[in-house]
Design brief:
- The complex is a heterodimer of chains A (361) and B (309).
- With 361 residues, chain A is an alpha+beta fold.
- Chain A is built from nine helices and 21 strands.
- Chain A has two domains: 229 residues, P-loop containing nucleotide triphosphate hydrolases (Rossmann fold, 3-Layer(aba) Sandwich), CATH 3.40.50.300; 123 residues, Beta Barrel (OB fold (Dihydrolipoamide Acetyltransferase, E2P)), CATH 2.40.50.
- In chain A, the strands form four sheets. Chain A has a six-stranded mixed beta sheet, with helices on both faces.
- In chain A, a hairpin with a 3-residue loop joins strand 16 and strand 17.
- The two termini of chain A are 44 Å apart.
- In chain A, 38% of the residues are buried.
- With 309 residues, chain B is mostly helical.
- Chain B has two domains: 60 residues, no CATH class; 233 residues, MetI-like fold (Orthogonal Bundle), CATH 1.10.3720.10.
- Chain B contains twelve helices and no strands.
- In chain B, helix 3 packs across helix 9 and helix 9 packs antiparallel against helix 12.
- Classes of the chains: A alpha+beta (361), B mainly alpha (309).
Chain lengths: 361, 309
């Protein structure tokens, strides 16, 4: 058993609460990603699981045992640091084997286990080099090797890919997933990059201002965000939010434009309409489209069209492949009512009444 | 037209070369002037007829050196200097290692005032401290000699112990004074050095299961080696060159250090033996040069690549 239970975990720094009561369970063998913007407390939370920070209040259990006051090395965990923290005066072999050397494991066994780890990470030919003579990606792999050689029950990753270039990052993502499959250790992975979270996680924990904003499977968070923070944090480009009021099925934007979002919502003022860029369709019009093109970003496989209306409300629309639009052109929008989300003025999601769904069905 | 342009260009080049040559010549002359005393010391040390003037020796002799060790207490002076300055350097490095680490890692409010306080000690000119330091040492000396007298009644043993542990006219006193004088700079060097060693290494070691001592032994010490080399070199060379403290705090000839030996040889009433003095100066310079050569290896050792990409 090596599940991780966080029960109302809090952290104070000199009177300032940075982690404000987090209760989460990460199952055995699960790949959990803690994601959030900088300063949300995600690294602090990870460091508390590692035992590098004291827990101000609450309870941490690993494998059912309370770990609040257990020293880091007794927790049967390994950690990959953002900075890698490879000992610069040791060779790759010594770096990977350091934990085993400290445990006074038999030398032949250390060699064997280091070799196994190196083979898995394709580091065999680099074992005698020092970290300074390695590239960023190789250092990253040594750091991972140092973690897996201990055969830990839990591996913690603190933004491990943030120092790599974009191409290497994509490659390392798939490698990490493969390693997780092979090892089956419980993984807690901290990142500010929602793409890493979406692609790797089995469970995403979105942190915001020291609280859990929402947790769940990646696609669940994408499809059913509970608030505007998660709605905008998960998905690239972020979800469009437009302020306005709802009367019946008509949502009135500040510019006076009307969007039909379908039945089921309760009318009200000060609401936010959420719609993802991929759920919007463009219709090129003549002079009076209501939306003006700002910028077109062409990525080849898709294009992102940035729009604004008379009251300078902004929108992004995703278009397959290339598009013929240019700046200052007028366009019309086609909005799929079923893909619309509605949030109250505090950012909490409002749900459609189920009665209507039955009627619709 | 073209020819005119080219000739003016060549003129410029020629003037440029000439001015450069003049600059080099001036620099060579200045360097020679600065190095003259060193030449004189080295030449005179091996010159059978050394005089106060710079001259090419008629032959080469080691008599001056033999004289220092055979007829004078040269060996004792060298040993005294090496033992006192060496011990003081080691002691300085131990304290500076602990102090520098603590000052680097602490976030306490008193960190900054304390650091400036430490450097302030360094700013005060040593002669200004002689009277108060002597007073303190005198007090400690009475106390330690009282202890020695209690410990043994044998006069010879008392003398021997007193020479070792006395605060005035004893090894311990001089070692501690040198250590205290060199500690401020050494602490600053080590503090700055530990600042540059990320805490990640210690945390990684903790997760690897290293005890505090193992972290120090296997991680911090190897990483801080260039810092120790720098701090040790400065401490050694400063203490080695110190003249005032041995002069103030030792009186018996058995405790005389190299600079004192040289000074007293220079003050002798009979004719000045330049060969003897310059040979002594060469011996006096050598350990500092050796210390530098030894530390250089570590000083240039820069560790990189452990953190970040």
């Amino acid at each position: 058993m090596s599940n991780i239970e966080l029960i109302d975990i809090k952290k104070n720094y000199l009177g300032t609460e940075v982690v404000k009561g987090i209760s989460v369970t990460i199952e055995q063998g699960e790949f959990a990603v803690i994601v959030g913007p900088s300063g949300c407390g995600k690294s602090t939370l990870l460091r508390m699981i590692a035992g590098l920070e004291d827990i101000s209040s609450g309870e941490l259990r690993i494998g059912g045992k309370v770990m609040n006051h257990v020293s880091p090395d007794q927790r049967e965990i390994a950690m990959v640091f953002q900075s890698y923290a490879l000992y610069p005066h040791m060779t790759v072999e010594e770096n990977i084997g350091f934990a085993l050397t400290l445990k006074k494991v038999d030398k032949a066994e250390i060699k064997q286990r280091v070799k196994e780890a190196a083979e898995m990470l394709e580091l065999e030919h680099l074992l005698q080099r020092k970290p300074a003579a390695l590239s960023g990606g190789q250092r990253q792999r040594v750091a991972i090797g140092r973690a897996i050689v201990k055969r830990p029950k839990v591996i913690l990753f603190d933004e491990p890919l943030s120092n790599l270039d974009a191409k290497l990052r994509v490659q390392m993502r798939t490698e990490l997933m493969r390693l997780h499959r092979e090892f089956g250790s419980t993984v807690v992975y901290v990142t500010h990059d929602q793409v890493e979270a979406m692609t790797m996680a089995q469970k995403i924990i979105v942190l915001h201002n020291g609280y859990v904003s929402q947790l769940g499977k990646p696609m669940q968070l994408y499809r059913e965000p509970e608030n505007t923070f998660v709605a905008q944090f998960i998905g690239v480009p972020k979800m469009n939010l437009l302020r306005g009021k709802l009367q019946g099925s008509n949502f009135y934007l500040q510019s006076g434009q009307v969007v039909d979002i379908g039945n089921g919502f309760t009318s009200g003022n000060d609401l936010q309409l959420g719609i993802r860029p991929e759920h919007l369709k463009l219709q090129a019009t003549g002079a009076q489209g209501g939306w003006t093109v700002d910028v077109v970003e062409r990525l080849g496989v898709e294009s992102f069209v940035h729009l604004h209306n008379a009251t300078m409300e902004q929108l992004v629309v995703r278009v397959e492949g290339d598009c013929e639009l240019a700046a200052d052109m007028q366009v019309n929008l086609q909005i799929d009512a079923a893909s619309c989300y509605l949030f109250d003025d505090k950012g909490q999601r409002l749900l459609r009444k189920p009665v209507i769904e039955q009627a619709a069905g | 037209m073209v020819a005119v342009v080219r000739s003016s260009f060549e003129d410029v080049t020629v003037t440029h070369h000439a001015s450069q040559r003049r600059a080099y010549l001036t620099l060579v002359l200045i360097s020679l002037f600065c190095m003259m005393p060193f030449f004189w010391v080295v030449l005179a040390a091996f010159d059978p007829k050394a005089s106060q003037f710079l001259q090419i020796p008629q032959g080469v002799t080691l008599d001056h050196f033999k004289n220092i060790f055979a007829n004078e207490s040269g060996m004792r002076w060298v040993l005294n200097s090496v033992v006192i300055v060496g011990s003081a350097t080691i002691l300085t490095l131990i304290f500076a290692g602990f102090g520098g680490y603590a000052l680097s890692r602490t976030q306490a409010w008193w960190k900054r005032p304390l650091l400036y306080g430490i450097i302030l000690v360094r700013i005060v000119p040593p002669p200004a401290l002689i009277v108060p330091v002597y007073k303190v040492m005198l007090f400690l000396n009475d106390w330690v000699n009282g202890l020695i007298n209690q410990f043994t009644a044998d006069v010879e043993q008392q003398q021997m112990l007193s020479r070792m542990f006395s605060f005035i006219d004893g090894y311990l006193g001089l070692i501690l004074i040198h250590c205290a004088m060199q500690l401020p700079l050494a602490i600053w060097i080590m503090k700055t050095f530990f600042d540059a060693i990320p805490k990640d290494y210690e945390e990684a070691a903790a997760l690897d299961g290293a005890s505090q001592w193992q972290t120090v032994r296997h991680v911090l010490l190897p990483l801080a080696l260039p810092g120790f080399a720098a701090a040790g070199l400065f401490a050694f060379i400063n203490a080695w060159g110190d003249f005032l403290m041995p002069l103030m705090f030792t009186s018996s000839p058995e405790l005389q250090t190299l600079p004192l030996g040289m000074f007293r040889a220079f003050l002798r009433v009979d004719a000045i033996d330049y060969g003897f003095l310059t040979a002594l100066a060469v011996i006096y310079t050598l350990p500092a040069v050796i210390a530098f050569a030894f530390a250089r290896k570590f000083l240039t050792q820069t560790f990189s690549g452990g953190v970040k990409g």
